[in-house]
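User: My advisor asked me to double-check a structure prediction for Cytokinin riboside 5'-monophosphate phosphoribohydrolase before group meeting. I don't want to rely on an old file, so could you generate it fresh from this sequence?
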Amino acid sequence: MGNPEAQGPPEEQHLGPVVRRRDQITPGTTDQRLLDTEGDAEWVHTDPWRVMRIQSEFVEGFGALAELPSAISVFGSARTLPGSAEYDAGVRLGKALVDAGFAVITGGGPGAMEAANKGAREANGVSVGLGIELPFEQGLNPHVDIGVNFRYFFVRKTMFVKYAQGFVVLPGGLGTLDELFEALTLVQTRKVTRFPIVLFGSAYWGGLVDWLRDTVVAQGKASQKDLLLFHVTDEVEEAVALVTKEVGR
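Assistant: Sure, here is a fresh prediction for Cytokinin riboside 5'-monophosphate phosphoribohydrolase from the sequence you gave:
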């Protein structure tokens, strides 16, 4: 067998910070591929291009929301029906948050999100909707004054947390639970500080709270103090008071 060191360095190609060797070397140069007017459009679906899309979504979100006043993110089901008690509670909550000096941020969709945006708009406050590209999404509801549509859930989640001083969580489904537990994890791990989380509707959230206490905490999967990371209420006024108190307003 020959000495590998005697064979010299392997053939390699430097593409910015990326090094390609042997059969992974690509023909041509990056500039050549950029300036070539021929070829298919599959490149827009490659992972490096997705990174640029992700970056652009952060830039657009930061730019649109940077000058927001203090805000509260309100979550809840897109399936909440207008005229229902839950919808009416969302409208009252949106109004009360504006009266307390907050902008209202929602996912921008129908149902509970629309209700909170409607309340904020009717109170002459700032009504924000952060939409997401979904195959069945209906677009931003008509009560949104500042709207941003995102392709990526994780970029949207960053905006919910970065530009809000707290969460109020109305009854909702899997998406609402996702946002709730993301927020709880960020507070528990101290990635964010002074971030109140209020669950609105004791009848709806009671089973979840019981499970957290009687199963998760009881089996040592979380600490008893983690149950203090959130509050449960049935009163709009108390929900607003809780977020106002914890953010020092």
